[in-house]
Each structure stands twice: as C-alpha cells, then as structure tokens.
Write a structure and sequence with these properties.
Helix content: 10-25%
CATH class: Alpha Beta
Order of helices and strands: EHEHEHEEHEEEEEE
Number of strands: 11
Oligomer: single chain
Shape: globular
Number of domains: 1
C-alpha cells in the first residue's frame, strides 16, 4: 500500500494551489494522510477528489468549515499498522515520550504544525512522522512531503520529497 503524507498546505495564504508534483503523488497513492492546516475548503475538496482514500484532520489555522468536516485526531488501520493523524504534538523536546504516552494504541503517528520534516521512534516503538510543508518551507531549505509503503504490518522506506524552490 502506497501512502502520501502531507501537512500544512496553507492554501491560499502560502501558495495559490498545491504543487503539481504533490497532486501527481496523490493520484498514485492508495491513501493520503493530511495532518492539518489546510486553511481553505477548496484544498480539502481537491484532495478528496483525487485521493483514493483520504485520512485527514484540522489544524490550528483551520476555520469552522474545515473543523465541521474533519476531526482533531484520526485513527485508521492500514496494511496491518495502526496509524494516527494529528496536527500538533507540542514542543520538539520530549515529543517522543509525550506522544508515546498520549497514543499508546498507535504504531505510527503522522503530525504537522512545525513545517519541519521529522522521523523518529518513541519509547515502545511508536514511529513519529512529520512530512513538513509542500508550500511553506519556513526555516527549512525546501518545501517537502513524504511517501512510504506499508504491508503486512511493516512500514516500508520513508522518502522525504523536496519540492523545487519557487
């Protein structure tokens, strides 16, 4: 199963639209996981229309329309692993232990908010993944998103994709 991990799209504040490369990745993915901060409803509807399956949450910059359609935390079983999606996990210091305590029922937690790609493992084996942002690199050298595979309870290679600078 091919997964696309994305967060912090911030359309139209940080970009007019999603990058074409990201949209093509959504077309290829079996499941798209979006960790919030969409900002506009049109972006949600774009990914809903392109993704075979979308698992998504709202973020701190998402208004009432998005919050009415999306949960704060989403949980889903994919390829034999228990995934969670949430926007914020708090400060980077102590994140692994904090998330392991908050989400003991998960194997993988996809999160956003910082715009910084992140891939670590918490005590007990919880994998923490932040795909960064495809539209707002902040202090990072590139805008990013992630892809990975999952099958038979095994998380395959995780790839951080760098988008060309605009």
């Amino acid at each position: 199963m091919r997964l696309l991990l994305v967060s912090d799209t911030h359309v139209p504040r940080r970009a007019r639209r999603l990058p074409e490369e990201l949209l093509r990745a959504a077309d290829r993915a079996d499941v798209v996981l979006h960790a919030g901060d969409w900002v506009d409803l049109a972006t949600l509807e774009t990914l809903e229309g392109r993704a075979r399956r979308l698992v998504a949450v709202y973020g701190n910059n998402d208004g009432p329309e998005l919050r009415a359609r999306l949960p704060e935390v989403a949980r889903v079983r994919l390829g034999g692993l228990r995934f969670g999606v949430v926007h914020e996990t708090g400060a980077s210091r102590g994140r692994e232990a904090r998330c392991a305590a908050l989400y003991p029922d998960l194997d993988v937690l996809v999160f956003g908010h910082s715009h910084i790609p992140w891939d670590t493992e918490a005590p007990g084996g919880l994998r923490l993944l932040n795909p960064g942002s495809p539209t707002d690199r902040r202090r990072q050298p590139y805008c990013t998103y992630m892809t990975c595979t999952v099958a038979n309870g095994v998380l395959g290679e995780i790839v951080v994709h760098r988008l060309p600078r605009r």
